[in-house]
Specification:
Helix content is 29%, strand content 21%. With 309 residues, the protein is an alpha+beta fold. Among the domains are: 69 residues, HSP40/DNAj peptide-binding domain (Sandwich), CATH 2.60.260.20; 91 residues, Urease metallochaperone UreE, N-terminal domain (HSP40/DNAj peptide-binding domain). The strands form four sheets. The protein has a four-stranded mixed sheet. It has a three-stranded mixed sheet with strand order 1-5-4. The protein has a two-stranded antiparallel sheet with strand order 2-3. A hairpin with a 6-residue loop joins strand 8 and strand 9. Helix 2 packs antiparallel against helix 3. The longest helix has 17 residues. The two termini are 49 Å apart.
């Protein structure tokens, strides 16, 4: 499996954000583990596509990858310049624009001068060449099951400092980033740790899709349920419920369950939209054929009448 996220999605490096999203959704639907149980190749392709999409859907992360600053997992690539150069270029450092740091002169003397200034300004005790700096931020990608994203939950991830439980807020969306304060890289000289940023990728569900705060699904019904009407069980993100299929239902007809969609703090829950799909029996037996032949003679109709040719 290629480490290049563009190869993993099968797109060119010039692909638009929309092309990248379409490529990911296609692979996710074709290779989802629920559709290919026990197929390690499909599972690996699904995971690789998810990791690639997590990186490329973020314009800043994509640009940094293209420049070679981070690898395909989003981790920083080693840079050749010394640490003190990185520190000198941080915003807020009073010496970042100073003439001493333009790349000329003896580098060791420059660093020593920096430390002497820190000591004079109270940043370090006399004779103590240490300084205090905040740790770097860390960036991670986490795939979240569809129902956990809809209902909220908790998942464990492994960070350099050990395992951590991440609370998934109810109603999070694909691409949303959570901030974990103090879970990034360690500080220097007693400085505070950086933060960890976890970008969520919502795993596709075999039955549900999300449209804003609405849940959308297709419900197969039998021929007799369509003709006679029926009470049938329907899955929702909160568990199964009974719905009424009206007598004479047609394929494409929409049933709506109010308030059964995505909810989140501060806003009302969306609805669940159920599209009916009449599914014929696998075998049309003699009894059904004979009945329909007789029925058509006296009740035949043309559902295409009036349709444009």
């Amino acid at each position: 499996m290629s480490d290049d996220p563009y190869d993993a999605l099968g797109v060119a490096k010039t692909a638009s954000a929309d092309q990248i999203k379409k490529a990911y959704r296609k692979i996710a639907k074709e290779s989802h583990p629920d559709l290919h149980p026990g197929d390690a190749t499909a599972e690996a392709r699904f995971k690789a596509a998810g990791a690639a999409f997590d990186l490329l859907k973020d314009p800043e992360a994509r640009a940094r990858f293209d420049r070679g600053e981070i690898d395909a997992s989003g981790q920083e690539r080693p840079r050749e310049r010394p640490f003190y150069r990185d520190f000198a270029e941080q915003p807020g450092n009073p010496y970042r624009q100073g003439p001493r740091y333009q790349g000329f002169g003896d580098e060791a003397d420059i660093f020593a001068e920096f430390l002497r200034r820190q000591a004079r300004q109270g940043g370090a005790e006399a004779g103590d060449h240490s300084f205090r700096a905040r740790g770097p931020d860390a960036h991670y990608a986490l795939e979240v099951p569809f129902l956990d994203a809809a209902n909220g939950g908790a998942l464990r991830i492994t960070l350099p400092g050990g395992d951590l439980e991440v609370k998934i807020p109810k109603g999070v969306a694909d691409g949303q980033t959570l901030r974990l304060r103090g879970k990034g890289g360690p500080g220097h000289g007693g400085g505070p740790a950086g933060d960890a940023y976890v970008t969520l990728s919502v795993r596709p569900h075999p039955a549900f899709t999300r449209d804003g705060d609405d849940i959308v699904m297709t419900l197969p019904i039998s021929l007799d349920e369509a003709v006679l009407g029926a009470k049938v069980e329907v899955p929702t993100i909160a568990g199964p419920v009974k719905v009424t299929v009206p007598k004479g239902a047609s394929s494409g007809q929409i049933l709506r369950l109010r308030g059964r969609g995505i909810g989140a703090p501060g806003r009302a829950a969306g609805d669940q939209r159920i599209e009916l799909k009449i599914t014929m029996p696998k075998t049309v037996d003699a009894d059904l054929a004979r009945f329909m032949e007789g029925w058509r003679k006296t009740h035949g109709y043309d559902p295409r009448k009036g349709e444009a040719s």
